[in-house]
Predict the 3D structure of the following.
Amino acid sequence: MKIYTKTGDKGTTALFGGTRVPKYHIRIESYGTIDELNSHIGLIRDQNIDAHHKSVLMEIQDRLFTIGAILATDPKKATLKSGEARLNIPKIAESDIEHLEKEMDTMEESLPPMTHFVLPGGHQTVSFCHIARTVCRRAERLAAHLNELEPFQPETLTYINRLSDYLFVLARKLSHELGAEEIKWIPQKKS
């Protein structure tokens, strides 16, 4: 299979199901940003971090491929003539969302309570986490817009939302594990 097909040379691309749309279409922006997020998560996973965190991040990357496939499917062609779903993979389940929540709860048990906003940074790995978190928030905004235009599985949007929370808690946990200073944002007073 060749990587280049030349079918996108005029600025369009095909959705799952064959429908061609402009490369700037909200659906392409949505799953493209999920792909970008997945790459950032791979960068975090490549860092010198705990094996458990790496394992959870790999599960998240798997789920992001599923989300990308959901977002890349033309809703008008989501069902085959046989009545079966074109996308024949497990969708995002409530258990996927609960898994992120349990991971956050476990990490937060060992962290001091938050009393202020935290400035991103303190260690390169922590910064990678914050970058992934902000890309996740952008993916969520795009997916929410797409969902308003062409609704998709509700758990998918919930998972993206919960993932950005997870990435924030992971950044705090990694700060703690790596001995990085967590700098509180304290607004300057008016003079």
About this structure: The radius of gyration is 19 Å.
